[in-house]
Amino acid sequence: MTAEKQGVLTREAGEHVAIDALGYLAGEPEALARFLALTGLSPDMLRSAAGDPAFLEGVLDYFLADEPLLVAYAAQAAVPPERIVAARRALGGDWIE
């Protein structure tokens, strides 16, 4: 059984989940406005920030801190919410469960 099937994602897979989540966020104006306000980023800065691993960690942190957003994204992506948790673990950084 592969690590991903066991719920362990590679860093690359975690980054793909974060980028997909960011795409979802872009389609949710209210959640995106809150995210931009919290990060201090402008919409124009999002594209370049998406290449920064620390930024991707922050994207997933934002979803994990907002359960309704997390559940809505997971449903749209057709993945269990635990996959977003696994993606965040794969990105490492300073994250406390």
In words, what does this structure look like?
With 97 residues, the chain is mainly alpha-helical. It has one domain (11-91). Helices cover 70% and strands 0% of the residues. It contains six helices and no strands. It has helices at residues 11-26, 29-39, 43-49, 53-64, 67-77, 81-91. Helix 1 (11-26) crosses helix 4 (53-64) and helix 1 crosses helix 6 (81-91). The radius of gyration is 13 Å and the shape is globular. The two termini are 25 Å apart. The relative contact order is 0.20. The mean pLDDT is 88.
Provide key terms for this protein:
97 residues, mainly alpha, 70% helix
Unreliable segments of 5+ consecutive residues: none
The major pleated sheet works out as: none
Q: Give the termini distance in whole angstroms.
A: 25 Å
Number of domains: 1
Shape: globular
State the assembly state of the protein chains: single chain
Beta percentage is under 5%
Task: From the alpha carbons, calculate the radius of gyration and give it in angstroms.
Answer: 13 Å
Give the gist of this structure:
The protein is mostly helical.
Summarize the topology:
Blueprint: H1 11-26, H2 29-39, H3 43-49, H4 53-64, H5 67-77, H6 81-91
Helix pairs in contact: 1-4, 1-6, 4-6
